[in-house]
Each structure stands twice: as C-alpha cells, then as structure tokens.
Amino acid sequence: MSRREEIAAGLAGVRARIDQACSTAGRDPASVVLIAVTKTFPAADVAHLAELGVQDVGENKDQEAAPKAQACAELTAAPLRWHFVGQLQTNKARSVARYCDVVHAVDRLRLVKALSRASADRPRSVECLVQVDLDPHSGEHRGGVAPGKVSDLAAAIDAAPGLVLRGVMAVAPYPRADGPDPATAFARLAEVSAALVQRYPAASAISAGMSGDLEAAVAAGATHLRVGSAILGHRPSPG
Ligand SMILES: *Cc1c(COP(=O)(O)O)cnc(C)c1O
User: Fold this and answer.
1) What is the per-residue pLDDT for 196?
2) Predicted confidence (pLDDT) per residue in 17-36, tens digit
3) Ligand 1 environment, Cβ below 6 A
4) Which residues are CB-neighbours of 145 under 8 A, at least 6 positions away?
5) Which of 28, 38, 75 is closest to 60 using CA atoms?
6) Is the pLDDT of residue 216 over 90?
7) How many CB atoms lie within 10 A of CB 107?
8) If you measure from the C-alpha of residue 142 to the centroid of ligand 1, how many angstroms do you get, rounded to a whole number?
C-alpha cells in the first residue's frame, strides 16, 4: 500500500466512526469538523490529506508547524486551515498567528494579550477557544482553566482586538480511580459551553475528542474533533 492509500484508509475509517457516532446521537455529520492532527508527520502527509478532502489540520509545536505550513503552501493547491491545539508559549504567539487561524488551548490572560498583539500582523482575526480543565483536582495537569474561571477568560478574549471567541476546548482527563471518564468529562464540557453560549451566542464551538474517545465527544455535542493516530498511524516520536 502506498502512503497515500494508507492515509485514505485511515481517514475513511475515522469518517465511518464519526458517521456512526452521529447516527447514534441523532446528529448531522456535517455539524462535526474533523481536524487531522499531523504533529510529527511530514508535510507530504498533510498534502495527501488535503488532496483527500481534509481542510483542517492541527499541530501542537510551533517549531515543527511553522516550516510545515510553509512547505504545504508549496506542495498543495488545496486550501488548509491550521489549528494550534497544544500548549502555546507566549513568545510563540507571533509566529503561530502567521499561519494558524484557530488557537484551541487559550488558558491564560498573558496568552490572550500576546495573541491580540500578534493578530495585528494578519488580515483576519485569530479564532480562540478557551481550554477547560475537566479534572482540576487531579495531580496531572493537562492545561486549561477550571470551569468556574472560563467566563473571565472568555470576556478577555471577547474584548481583545484581533481575536474572536469561538468556544471551548478540552482534553479528556488522564484515567484515575475516582476521576471522571471521558463521557462524564465531556458532559461537563457541554455544560460549560451552554453557559458560555448564553452570553456569547457565536461562541458555540466545542473542541473535544481524539482517536480514542471521539464517540464520547460526538455524543456530548462536540463540534470539532482532533484526530491524529487513527488517521495517520502511530506517531514516529512522542508529540
Ligand atoms: C496529539 C493531540 C491530539 C490527537 O491525538 P490522537 O490520539 O493521535 O488522535 C488531539 N488533541 C491534542 C491537544 C493533541 O495534542
């Protein structure tokens, strides 16, 4: 099998899982955006994805993503939207704002300010999602603000020039004995989203769900899935 065929098969498998999960949940598959997370995979793989109809790709490290986005602009004519899905250091905000349209893990005021300043260099606003910590009591911090702190950060994004508040994002908590399972955690995220949407009707995006838990995320109302290994295979190195 060529790499292109491998990726096509992975993509078809994930699309079938999404269709099945939507049908179980009574949702329209068109209401779910699949973001192919391409971290650690080469630009050539992104070009295959683009030619297979993927429009949204996700990365989590600026030093890897910036040259990849540039290479892809030369490799493929298909339009791509780049999503930054990882922890973002403030000093990388300027670089990320050059090629990313959406930043998923906004979790502190300093980052809001840095992204707002960086957005001055681009023609369009940077779309921001507030990362929510769905298990704030665990020792293993996966980033994000506690649910009770979401509205303050959302207000800061909403007020920041050059930024658009799009919604919330979360990563399922690490499994632990008395911690929440993905379904419980994503249900909590849906509640946080509903409260946010009351105040900001356009901030309706819910970014949740990865290769292992996309069904639970779709069931809980996720609008954006971030899927890497189920499409592209095992990552050659940690990322
Ligand atoms: C790597 C990553 C993903 C994709 O994970 P898979 O298990 O490979 O699907 C999703 N979200 C974030 C934040 C990631 O870092």
Assistant:
1) 98
2) 999 999 999 999 999 999 99
3) 37, 39, 60, 85-86, 171, 210-212, 226-230
4) 107, 108, 130, 131, 132, 133, 153
5) 38
6) yes
7) 22
8) 12
